[in-house]
Amino acid sequence: MVQAQLFFLSDQYYLDFPDDKLMKNKDMIDGVPHNRPCFFAFSDSKVPEIYWIVPISSKYEKYKKIEELKIQKYGKCNTIRFGTVLGRHTAFLIQNMCPATEKYLTAYIDKNNQPIRIDDRIAADVVKNSREVLSLAKRGAKVIFPDVFRIYSALEQELSAEK
User: Fold this and answer.
1) Is the dihedral of CA 89, 92, 47, 11 positive or negative?
2) Does residue 27 fall inside a structural domain?
3) What is the rounded distance in angstroms from the CA atom of residue 81 to the CA atom of residue 58?
4) Nearest to 94 by CA among 141, 47, 48
5) What is the C-alpha separation between 161 and 140, in angstroms, rounded?
6) Would you say residue 25 has pLDDT above 80?
């Protein structure tokens, strides 16, 4: 898998791992479903065949305000990070991340059939903060909306059954 690459999540993932806290898979634009959201993926440190996928939102201003409120309340915010994707300001929603395997991911490809990537500095920031948030979640903090550990466990079982 290419580093710092962006992906879409398959419809099958939502069927296999129903969770009302997962970000919805499709937006309707002019009555036509579009693949949304786009996700940034990085390998799990324990099981590299499992990827943590962080949804990306173009609602930059909305999430900047949420970040400011969290900073006022907690002194910092590492559940939302910001960067530029395809020349646009975007929010990386660590609070909405979830685990997936390659079979559920489809690469985001440009018109030249090249994978869409993000800057390595943005990728490093998102990965660092995602790992911190995961660590908090493992200790019981409610910092990630979906039930990521239930999904993770099911993915581990799926992978071991394939071996």
Assistant:
1) negative
2) yes
3) 12
4) 141
5) 29
6) no
Q: How many domains does the chain have?
A: 1
- For residue range 104-135, list pLDDT tens digits in order: 999 998 889 888 889 999 999 999 999 999 99
pTM of the model: 0.90
The predicted structure's pLDDT at residue 143: 94
Residue 28 pLDDT? 46
Domain extent, residue 65, equals: 6-162
Contacts of residue 7, defined as CB under 8 A and 6 or more positions apart, other chains included, come to 38, 39, 40, 41, 53, 105, 106, 107, 108
CATH code (residue 18): 3.10.129.130
> In terms of C-beta density within 10 A (0-12 exposed, 13-18 middle, 19 or more buried), how is residue 19 classed?
middle
Residue 79 in any domain: the answer is: yes
**Looking at residue 1, what DSSP letter applies?**
-
